[in-house]
Design brief:
- The complex is a heterodimer of chains A (about 475) and B (about 200).
- Chain A is an alpha/beta fold and about 475 residues long.
- Chain A contains 17 helices and 19 strands.
- The longest helix of chain A is centred in the first third of the chain and has 17 residues.
- Chain A is globular, with a radius of gyration of 21 Å.
- The termini of chain A are far apart.
- Chain B is about 30% helix and about 15% strand.
- Chain B has a seven-stranded mixed sheet with strand order 4-3-2-1-5-6-7.
- The chains are: A alpha/beta (about 475), B alpha/beta (about 200).
- Chains A and B meet through helix 2, helix 3, helix 5, strand 8 and helix 10 of A and helix 4, helix 7 and helix 8 of B.
- Bound molecules: iron/sulfur cluster.
- Iron/sulfur cluster (SF4) binds next to helix 12 of chain A.
Chain lengths: ~475, ~200
């Protein structure tokens, strides 16, 4: 029997496998950031260990840093401490650091691919659950805890139990105004926020094949929101074209060999998946979440379900507690829901393609009077490119604030947060209670839907603006 | 790692599904560079008012559940962020075991690395445990890792599954590093192979 993409990558990385034990899996690239690494370096120091492969370890600063142009002396003390600690650790252990003061900086899952660190067929880990993003290149990439960060720093290996596989096939053509974000939100709404636990997703089908790398990253990014630690897409010409010439991509003759190998990675025709899910792209609509987990989403023309529509008592309980937190009512239509804040950014939708699409909606329009709207590019490179294209002016003229690169209001670690009770139209990935600020109410949607919400002051069907 | 063999303790009923790690420990507590004192931030948004006073109706603040060592939560516990701080917050607070119908993968792994036992039981059993400890907060549950069982005061027993390798690690307090390091020769050989 043939092998899946996942199995090919997994099998190629098993260093040792004792009977009854998890596999010792080799890690090709390890990304670290200021928030989940300090205790791991602490462990190395305590045990007198070194970083085994500093050449395979890359550090970014993204989670805690303010995105306003601020001298570090003016930062909150704890964020400054984390940034300084990461600097010291990278220096002491010889790890490449993309420092906030340097030319390369931004969200770890935006910068890694941008630099060409992410290759098809690799194993990639990071102390961050959205490491699944890198699966868009046909890598096996997943988030790990800080203890595991320590293990990888020390040994370049991880002890892992083999997950199961789920094929998610999306065929058909997306309608105008329906995006990659809507595909993944629809998948999670269908399969549940915990539905992928124990699985690695493989996204396939004609609708996936036509997507750009940025869009594929949006989908793989949110695999974790569907409960799967990793999501993968087989590499193809789109992948190779994206990677070619990037700083850490293979060059010259090595590039030719790499591409020949990468072409063999796709799942074989007779490969077996433990589960399969199918979606018709042509039936999808722009999606909006109404609740406090990413599975609580509906098409923008839809309504919040009624408790009596849900058979499962746990789902009912979840709905009711979400409604209480969100200040919304079961049965309510999502279209027309007023918004207070718009956040465009994050590792889900902070890439240049996302900003271009959002800018197209915003161009020549104004942000509604009461709305606070910010754009936070995913990296300095994205920011620079956007400025070269004049997108910053489009956003600013419309009334958006134009920020520096970082995670920002996606996780509200610093002052970039929404106030209690505020409704946030957000292009990020988590609508958890308090995620974007204590009491903040997040509605997840695509960049063009968020842009449309900004100029209308409420949730609207962006397709009406595209007609 | 602190070993886990058996535990006989009271339990807190947390009747909530999809408790994500942002709820277990909000991002603003992630600015620490050590693991210490995370328990103070445990469930802080649901546990405290914005002014820092405890919310009387939150189960962790009720006097009858002080000193409990087991948390009983709804399905998909620990979803979201990979932050191990969530586990550190639970253990620092005093929990040694979480019972749920299902855990998110990363949280489950992180628990095992910190001597916090994740016990997966059927939805119906979890519902029964909720009723039991709500009715009688002093109810003591006995968790035995060796026999993989949860025993109720009336003698009723429910068994749970755990990976045999992970079980040994927990029983003996072993961490992964020693095991991985024992494969050094294989790692060196692997690193010597050409990639393509
Ligand atoms: S943008 Fe948000 S989801 Fe992405 S890495 Fe940063 S905090 Fe995590």
């Amino acid at each position: 029997m043939g092998k899946t993409l996942f199995e090919k990558v997994w099998d190629a990385h098993v260093v040792a496998q004792d009977e009854g034990a998890p596999a010792v899996l080799y890690i090709d690239a390890h990304l670290i950031h200021e928030v989940t690494s300090p205790q791991a370096f602490g462990m190395l120091r305590e045990q007198g260990l070194t970083v085994r492969r500093p050449d395979k370890t890359f550090a970014t600063m993204d989670h805690a840093i303010p995105t306003r142009d601020l001298d570090i002396a003016l930062w909150p003390a704890d964020a400054a401490t984390q940034v300084r600690t990461l600097r010291e650790n990278c220096e002491a252990f010889g790890v490449t650091l993309w420092d906030i003061n340097g030319p390369i900086q931004g969200i770890v899952h935006v910068v890694g691919p941008e630099m060409g660190v992410t290759h098809p067929g690799m194993t990639i880990v990071c102390g961050d659950s959205h490491t699944s993003t890198h699966g868009a290149f046909g890598a096996l990439a997943f988030g790990i805890g800080t203890s595991e960060v320590g293990h990888v720093l020390a040994t370049q290996c991880l002890l892992q139990k083999k997950p199961r596989t789920m094929a998610i096939t999306v065929d058909g053509e997306l309608g105008t105004g329906v995006t990659a974000k809507d595909i993944i939100l629809a998948i999670i709404a269908k399969n549940g926020a915990g539905g992928g636990a124990g699985y690695v997703f493989e996204y396939r089908g004609s609708a996936i094949r036509t997507l750009s790398m940025a869009n594929r990253m949006t989908i793989c990014n949110m695999s974790i929101e569907g409960g799967a630690r990793a999501g993968m897409i087989a590499p193809d010409e789109t992948t190779f074209a994206f990677l070619k010439g990037r700083p850490y991509a293979p060059q010259g003759e090595a590039w030719e060999r790499a591409v020949a190998f990468w072409k063999t990675l796709g799942s074989d025709a007779d490969a077996h998946f433990d589960r399969e899910l199918r979606l018709d792209a042509s039936q999808l609509q722009p999606m909006v979440t109404y609740g406090t987990n990413p599975g609580q989403g509906v098409p923008v023309t839809g309504r919040i379900p009624l408790p009596e529509d849900l058979e499962d008592p746990a789902e009912r309980r979840s709905l009711l507690s979400a409604m209480e937190y969100m200040g919304l009512k079961p049965g309510q239509a999502m279209e027309g829901q007023p918004i207070d804040i718009v956040f465009i950014g994050s590792c889900t939708n902070g890439r240049i393609e996302d900003l271009r699409e959002a800018a197209r909606i915003v161009q020549g329009r104004r942000v509604a009077g009461h709305i606070e709207a910010i754009v936070v590019p995913g990296s300095k490179a994205v920011k620079g490119q956007a400025e070269a294209e004049g997108l910053d002016r489009i956003f600013q003229e419309a009334g958006f604030e134009w920020r520096g690169a970082g995670c920002s209001m996606c996780l509200a670690m610093n002052d970039d947060k929404a106030g209690a009770g505020k409704y946030v139209a957000s292009t990020s990935n988590r609508n958890f209670q308090g995620r974007q600020g204590p009491g903040a109410r997040s509605l997840l949607m695509s960049p063009i839907m968020a842009a449309a919400a900004a100029v209308n002051g409420r949730v609207v069907d962006v397709r009406e603006m595209l007609r | 790692m602190q070993p886990f063999t058996a535990l006989s303790a009271a339990a807190v009923p947390l009747r909530m599904e999809n408790v994500d790690t942002d709820q277990i420990i909000p991002a603003r507590y992630l600015t620490a560079v050590t693991k210490d004192g995370m328990g103070a931030g445990l469930f802080s948004w649901i546990r405290y008012h914005p002014d820092g006073t405890p919310k009387a109706d939150f189960v962790l603040n009720q006097p009858e559940y002080q000193g409990a060592r087991i948390l009983i939560a709804g399905r998909n516990f620990g979803s979201g962020s990979s932050r191990e701080h969530a586990v550190w917050a639970l253990t620092d607070y005093g929990f040694r075991c979480v019972i749920s119908p299902g855990f998110a993968d990363i949280f489950y792994n992180n628990s095992l690395k910190n001597g916090l036992l994740p016990v997966t039981l059927e939805e119906e059993v979890v519902a029964l445990l909720w009723d039991l400890v709500e009715e009688e907060p002093t109810t003591t549950l006995q968790i035995d890792l060796r026999s993989q069982t949860v025993t109720l005061p009336d003698g009723q027993q429910h068994s749970f599954a755990i990976d045999p390798f992970r079980k040994i690690c927990l029983l003996e307090g072993l961490d992964d590093l020693g095991y991985i390091s024992s494969k050094e020769a294989a790692i060196v050989a692997y690193e010597a192979r050409p990639t393509y």
